Amino acid sequence: MSNYDKPLPQTTPWTQPFWDAAKEHRLLAQHCKECDRTVFYPKLFCPYCYSETLDWREISGEGEIYSFTVVQQHPPSAFQDDLPYVVAIVRLKDGPQMLTNIVNCDPEKVHCGMRVAPAFDDVTDDFTLVKFRPE
Predict the structure, then answer these.
(1) Structural domain boundaries enclosing 54
(2) pLDDT for residue 2
(3) Domain containing 116 — which CATH number?
(4) Angle at CA 119, nearest 5°, toward 116 and 73?
């Protein structure tokens, strides 16, 4: 695999299941056993009812773009060669929203409400990033 010189997320014991699943091209989110809500991003307790009884469930990743911006100039130096690129908030059908990139799409065609699905980017032998592509 090529040398990846961009920053990677910092993993923690409570986020590791998410990253392990991403490596397998699966999307997981936490689920609160007390209030039956989906929790994302991974936490130590439910942000809705404060319960610590969280488990993991696979989610489809299908969703739509809620908001986005096209970065066209002055990105952090590691991302200079990616210009232009899309940073978006995707509202997942399964409940949560994710901050992500939209890939495999002309940035000028991206729009709010666009239906998207996960696109897994194996950036290193040990790390896969979750991005989204048009459905």
Answers:
(1) 11-59
(2) 59
(3) 2.40.50
(4) 85
Give me the pLDDT at residue 1, please: 52
Residues 45 and 111 in one domain: no
Distance CA 97, CA 41 (A): 9
Q: Which of 22, 33, 41, 17 is nearest to 92 (CA)?
A: 41
Q: Is residue 131 part of a domain?
A: yes
Instruction: Tell me the mean pLDDT per 10 residues along the chain, length 135.
Output: 83 95 97 95 95 96 97 92 96 93 96 98 95 96
Please state the separation of Cα 128 from the chain's center in Å.
10
Domain final residue, candidates 41, 59, 77: 59
112 lies in some domain: yes
Is residue 101 assigned to a domain? yes
- Strand-by-strand arrangement of the 54-59 sheet: 38-39, 27-32, 54-59
Q: Is 66 exposed, middle or buried (0-12, 13-18, 19+ CB in 10 A)?
A: middle
Structure tokens at 119: 């696109």
Rounded to whole angstroms, the Cα distance separating 49 from 66 reads 25
Single out the residue in 40, 59, 78 at which a domain terminates. 59
